[in-house]
Specification:
By secondary structure, the chain is an alpha+beta fold. The chain has one domain. Helices cover 17% and strands 40% of the residues. It contains two helices and four strands, in the order ββββαα. It has a four-stranded antiparallel beta sheet with strand order 1-2-3-4. A hairpin with a 5-residue loop joins strand 3 and strand 4. It starts with a strand and ends with a helix. The relative contact order is 0.21.
Length: 77
């Protein structure tokens, strides 16, 4: 998985272009600074992801959910 491009300023709303196994998707996200340091991202309308040291890591973590066929919540059951 690779971040090709991030459009927008962080913190704030962005559009991330992410590629994985030959599939390229543009994903609208929100990125914020975590109060304890680091960054968090979320797909629009979703919950905030884990705190990461880098913006790209936070984006990749959230983008991974857009590439799975079974949502993570269902996989945990």
């Amino acid at each position: 998985m690779e971040v090709i491009c991030i459009i927008g300023a962080t913190p704030g709303p962005i559009t991330a272009t992410v590629a994985h196994e030959g599939v390229v998707r543009q994903l609208p996200m929100d990125v914020m600074r975590h109060p304890a340091g680091g960054w968090q991202a979320r797909l629009r309308g979703g919950q905030w992801g884990l705190r990461c040291h880098a913006v790209t890591t936070a984006v990749l973590l959230e983008a991974s959910e857009a590439f799975v066929e079974t949502p993570m919540a269902l996989a945990a059951e």
